[in-house]
Amino acid sequence: MDFSNFLLMRFEVILLAVILLLIIGEIFITQAKKDAVIHLAIFLFGIHTAVGFFNLDDGSLFGGMYRTNTLIQCFKSILNVGVLILLLQSGDWIQEKIMKHGRGTEFFVLLFSSLFGMYFMISSGDFLMFYLGLELSTLPVAGLAAYETTKRISSEAGIKLILSAAMASGTALMGISLLYATSGSIYFSDVITAISPDSLTILGFVLFFSGLAFKISLVPFHFWTADVYEGSPIAIASYLSVISKGAAVFILMILLFTVLKPLIGIWEKLLYIIAIATMFIGNLFALRQQNMKRFLAYSSIAQAGFILLGLIIGNQLGAATVIYFVLIYIFSNLAAFGVVQAISLQTGKELMSDYEGLYRTNPNLSLIMMLALFSLAGIPPVAGFFGKFFLFTAAASEGYYFLVFLAVVNVTISLYYYLLVVRAMFLRKSNNAIPYFKNKIYMRLGLLITVIGILILGIYSPLYEYIYELSINLQ
């Protein structure tokens, strides 16, 4: 490999360097100054995120196992921005809850290792690289879900996640094996020319799709979601809800629109049914939730159903709307999780009833939460409205009018339960309201970035046009 090869793998090489530098820092930084690891990790990852925005040439490595182009680089940069915001929001929690147990560096190493696996999964050119990336992205998160070892519910979340992930991984691997049996190759470029809609191929696709549907929390593969989110640290719940789901959506979109395009008659019908089930079950179960982490878990399930409206189209327009929606979803969901984390860190309260009267004591946090929930609900003029509008328009352009109608019904349902939180914060009074507190600089910066993202993405339409131009790489 020469230097140009390393440039093609810029995201992976720099992230690996960040991981190694953190391990070296853990060795040489004295115990009294371990908090410096937090600043070092955020600083190094911030540089990594900034470098990712410089364009690279398209290319492939390892005989086609690894590939990259401008669209894939865009995917990775979006994930980087989300992880950077998450790190800023988690800095205070790590300092106050994790560092005292001497496990701060391990948190960053596991988190970055999971992201490292997502890079390879997104850039995979064959099913072997895809599967290795899938496993590397999943296993560290299981450890992170059980990271608060002093809490029994956290250990339970880790066990549930690793067992569910193992089942999903085995199912996906069985599907890959059947696709290999019918096509005679694991390389995407070969599979697309050899695949045909026979019974064995369809079975292989269904099994493979089931494995990825687990990571996206599509119905009926969503049962783990609420329990794992509730038991995990809030930082990891938001990582699972945003970064892990976003990466899985990206690679599923790539495979459906390219490798599995000959099976569009099959997966089009499958996505239609699953989209309806996911939207309704996610929204209806969210109506019953009082714990904010479980509330946002079912909200994220419903949002996954909306994403399928773009995937079902199978063309450049669908790809652009999915990418744009995921980008908006990252800012919106991280804003909501950020407020929940800030309140939980200061007070330990995570119930919706605890938010009563919040506007009177913490108006800034209330406004950020309201903005995030309005974006998730799709209320104009915030970004979430345009994300859903583009999805609905794209689906309607292909004749899916009934599916769009059901999606609008679900938007109405979601607006009701999002307004329950808004009502608690702004209209309810409480004698035991959460007292005023001031967040530290990292949390304030993380929340500020999410607010800017929610507002700007709803106004700056050239960004959507740029993503649409990049999406030609999927054709």
Please give a structural write-up.
- With 475 residues, this protein is mostly helical.
- It has one domain.
- Helices cover 76% and strands 1% of the residues.
- The chain has 20 helices and two strands.
- Helix 7 packs across helix 8.
- The longest helix is centred in the middle third of the chain and has 32 residues, at 152-183.
- The protein is globular, with a radius of gyration of 21 Å.
- The two termini are 30 Å apart.
- The relative contact order is 0.09.
Short description:
The chain is mainly α.
**Order of helical and strand elements:** HHHEEHHHHHHHHHHHHHHHHH
Number of individual domains: 1
Low-pLDDT segments, ≥5 res: none
Structural class: mainly alpha
Indicate the overall shape. globular
Largest sheet report: 2 strands, antiparallel
Average of pLDDT? 87
Question: Please, how many helices?
Answer: 20
**Approximately how much beta-strand content do the residues carry?**
under 5%
Number of strands: 2
Entry keywords:
mainly alpha; 1% strand; 475 residues; globular
Write the topology of this structure.
Blueprint (H helix, E strand, L loop, with lengths): L2 H6 L1 H19 L7 H16 L7 E3 L4 E3 L1 H29 L5 H19 L4 H19 L6 H32 L4 H7 L4 H18 L8 H7 L2 H26 L4 H23 L5 H20 L4 H32 L10 H4 L1 H15 L5 H15 L3 H26 L14 H17 L4 H9 L5
Antiparallel strand pairs: 1-2
